[in-house]
Amino acid sequence: MTFEPVKRKSIIVWLYTLKQWKQLRKYGSVHHISERLKYAIMYVNDSQLDETLSSLRKLNFVREVELSYRDDIDMTFKDAIADRIDPDLKPDKEEEEVSFDEFFKDLAHEIDPKEAKEKK
Prior knowledge:
The protein is built from three helices and four strands, in the order E-E-E-H-E-H-H. It is of the alpha+beta class and 120 residues long. It has a domain of 63 residues: Alpha-Beta Plaits (2-Layer Sandwich). It has a four-stranded antiparallel beta sheet, with helices on one face. The protein is elongated. The protein starts with 7 loop residues before the first strand and ends with a helix.
């Protein structure tokens, strides 16, 4: 016997009032409820999706029912930012260590080349 997950779809139910939100539980599992924006996110079995959508639209406290766009969104964000430096990426070459004397001489030369020559 193998386990096969039930295919489910996410739907967004916009409500006029939140007083009857518990009635939504008989149509599927309620995942999230927004009190401020008055909507609920539900998961419904894919095989019963059409029946559930039509019965939810008939309820008097439901403003609108729509399918979630989550399946349409590409969830691979690896190349979303072009110039991002990956923190897990190991550098190919290790940086050469520069002594402090050489660093300060180069810095002094960049700031004022005349003074750097006089101090040498």
